[in-house]
Structures are given as C-alpha cells and as structure tokens.
Amino acid sequence: MTANPWVRPYVLTGGRTRTKHHLYVHTLVSLERYDPSASSRLSPEAQRLYERCAAGTQSVAELSAHCAVSLGVTRVLLEDLAAAELVQINDDAYSSPYDHRLLKRVIDGLREFA
Amino acid sequence: MAFASSPDQLAPSVTSAKIVVAGGFGVGKTTLVSTVSEIPPVNTEAWMTQASKTVDPMRGTDAKTTTTVAMDFGRLTLSRNLILYLFGTPGQPRFWPMWDDLCRGASAAVVLVDTRRLDVSFPAVNYFENDSDVPFVVAVNLFDGLQTHPLDQVRDALGVAGSVPLVTVDARDRRSSVHVLLASLNNTLEKTSPVVIH
Q1: Contact at 8 Å (CB) between A23 and B12?
Q2: To probe the interface with B, which of A24, A25, A53 has the most B CB atoms within 10 Å?
C-alpha cells in the first residue's frame, strides 16, 4: 500500500500537475455503484483510490492519506475518475465557505457536542 | 448519533466544511483535533514524507521527519448531510506552502498558543493577520487547567488586534474544544457579510 519511491509523481498523472476544478482537501468524493471491471483497468494508484471510495463518502485528504498517494497526484487521479463517471465529486453547496447559511448549519451541528 | 458517523448512511448531497487549527509545535493542535474527531486523527506525516520521498529522497534529513508531526486532520459528522473537517497545520518550515492549500476554502481558523512558549505561535498569528483572509481566533491552551496569564497580557505579548477574539481552551476536553470551534465560526459570522446567491 505504499507508494513506489522510484516512480515520479508526474508519471502517475501523465505529466499533469493541475486539475480543472479546484479540489479542496475537504472536498467530498462519493461513489454510486462500484464497478469491478472498471477497477481492474485502472492504474494501481487510481485503483486504490477507487476501491477506497467504495468504503463511503470521504474527503480528498482522507483518500490521499489512506491510499498513500500524495495529495497532488490524488487530485489529478480523482478528477480522471470523475471524468470517467466512476466517482462523483460533490459540488460545494455554497459558493463561499463564509456563506452564513453554511456557518449556521455547522454551528447548529456543533452545539450538539458542546 | 451512531447512524450518522457511518459513511454509507450519509445522504447523497453531503456538504463539508473545514476549520484550520494552527499554532507552533507542541501547543496542542493534535490534541484538539483528536479530542473533537470521530475518527482516529489521520497523521499525515507518513503521507507527507511519502510524497516528498517520491520527489526527493532527502537523504540525511530522515531523523527530522520522524521527530515532528507534519499535519493532522480529523472529522466530525454533524448530520446526515454535513461533515466538519479539522485540519492541523504542519509546523515545519518546509511544509509551509501547505498552509495556503489547507486554508483555501476554510470557514474559520483557530491559532492555539501556549503561554509558556508564546513565540512558537508567532508565525501562525502573522500568517492569519497578513497572508490569509480566513477569520481567526486565538485560543490559549490551558495545559494544567490553570490560566497563568490574564488574557489581555497574552494579547499584548502576541500583538494581536483587539478585533481578534481571544479565548481559553482545554484541548483535552471535548466540550471546551467544541466551544472554541463555535467561537471561531461565530467570529467568521461577525467578520463576513451574508453571501447572497442570485
């Protein structure tokens, strides 16, 4: 499960270092239906990410950490998986992290623990 | 709330929010994140080390990477469709480019300070005062449960503006830590205008 230290990150991403959409470390990724045959055609790193997505909705950072794929590579590969419609990148429901509706929802949720 | 912490029970349109926990080495960032998190905090040192190994084996500096924690994060499911992530900032200078990445999209930040070693948190205070738009609060971590310095003295020593809320926290205590997170979010509510979507 550890990354191969002899493979350069850009090899894993086909030379790409940027993604079309900005994926935050906390952006959520989910999978609607696991497809074993699609999984078997993926590169080892993309496959690890895809398999991990099957465990449930989780963040880019969680996927990166659990799959031992660096954050930059994880972002590129997740976008590929999303373009192939294998996973869904959850759109931000709010245009700003300071949207007061979001802040109030988080505050209300946190109060349950206070 | 057992049902809510199981990922497969989440509603299809789940939203996430993020709070950044910053401060110098040893001020209690990891403690605060683990106190609040429902999952064992993910220590991303292995992840960072692995990432940098792939680029540069960094021979001769391996000892350094094993002594300090790069970054931690935790998560707290607030409802079926809302997850809060907490990200601790990496302390070592070589990870500082990560700060911008971590702070992007954050709703609030907490700068933790230890009054016995205020200086280790100066860079974090500077960062949020000068280099980031994320509204922040400063939280004095009471290591022995005792407040050794009045808060206004701490404010003077840190040189933070009066508009920045200064609170105390016992990072080992969940309710206390949650109160700091609430303070940081309320601060963002006060410092920002409601976003109207047309």
Answers
A1: no
A2: A25
Q: Which two tokens stand for residue A65?
A: 């950490």
Inter-CA distances, B182 with A110, B28, B71, B167, Å: 7, 18, 22, 11
Q: Is the pTM higher than 0.90? A: no
Name the nearest CA neighbour of A75 among A6, A5, A13.
A13
What are the domain boundaries of chain B? 16-190
* ipTM for this prediction: 0.87
Ordered per-residue pLDDT tens for chain B, 198 residues: 334 444 555 656 899 999 999 998 889 998 999 999 998 877 665 444 444 444 444 444 443 333 333 668 999 999 999 999 999 988 766 667 788 889 999 999 999 999 989 998 999 999 999 999 999 999 999 977 777 788 999 999 999 999 999 999 999 999 999 999 999 999 999 999 886 554
Q: Which CATH architecture has domain B16-190?
A: 3-Layer(aba) Sandwich (3.40)
The first and second tokens of residue B8, run together, are 């497969």
Contact B136, B111 (CB under 8 A): yes
B74: which 2 tokens? 């935790």
Answer whether A103's CB lies under 8 Å from B185's CB.
Answer: yes
Residue in B with minimal Cα distance to A64: B47
Name chain A contacts of B84, Cβ cutoff 8 Å.
106, 109-110
Q: Which residues 48-67 in chain A show a CB within 8 A of chain B? A: 55-59, 61-62, 64-66
Q: What is the DSSP letter of B96?
A: T
Instruction: Name the burial class of residue B48, with classes exposed (0-12), middle (13-18) and buried (19+) by CB atoms within 10 angstroms of its CB.
Output: buried
Of A4, A90, A99, the CB nearest to B195: A99
With b meaning 16 or more CB within 10 Å and e meaning fewer, what string describes A19-32?
beeebbbbbbbbbe
Helix (H, G, I), strand (E, B) or coil at B15: strand
Interatomic CA distance for residues A78 and A88, integer angstroms: 9
